[in-house]
Amino acid sequence: MSLAIFDLDNTLLGGDSDHSWGEFMIEKGLVDGESHKTANDQFYQDYKAGTLDISAYVSFTLSPLRTMSIAEREKLHEEFMASKITPLILPKAQALIEKHRNQGHTLLIITATNHFITAPIARRLGIENLLATDPEVVDGKFTGRLAGTPCFQEGKVVRLRQWLQDRPEDMEESFFYSDSFNDLPLLEQVSYPYAVDPDETLKEHAENNNWPVISLR
Q: Which of the chain's termini has less CB crowding within 10 Å, N or C?
């Protein structure tokens, strides 16, 4: 079975869910607005530069939730989906997903953004399989630490290979769509890499390697 793999932020979404979550936390008054915005923006710039400390970012992102119950977190995420994520969903992305679904491909989102933020988004997009950075949870509460390998840069390749060990699919005839040069390790592993509204580094790499460059915007 062929795999159709999708990055999430700035690929299937017309924006970044992780950064949007930080903005949502500010709007809800759950964090100090000025300091949180400064740190949130800096983490996003670090990601775009390829220098992100993902452990620190996950701890920062989930720190306002560490004392919340599961029910409180889920209610907050419902608000986040309605106000921040629904406007970012791209019709062309949905059409691309359905194209691969209709071809009988296994659909998978693989994202550096943490599982708490991304799992409801994957469900909204109708994609059952998700590999995301996993935060550690003890007694139903986030600890601020990571569980397992972060799903970032080379970590995406590691996580995908671990996932495939228990699956009928393999990397033969596989597709991967991404906007970011951070995903070059995985883009170079698949049969059909696609650069989607790419950053300049990925765009140049794609053009030099005759990879398709497409837009879902």
A: C
Our count of domains for the chain comes to 1
Task: Tell me the pLDDT tens digit for each residue of 154-197.
Answer: 999 999 999 999 898 989 999 999 999 999 999 999 999 999 99
Strands 3-6 and 106-114: parallel
Which tokens sit at 189?
Answer: 């592993």
Question: Which residues are known catalytic residues?
Answer: 7, 9
How far apart (Å, rounded) are the C-alpha atoms in residues 68 and 71?
Answer: 8
Domain range for 198 is: 3-214
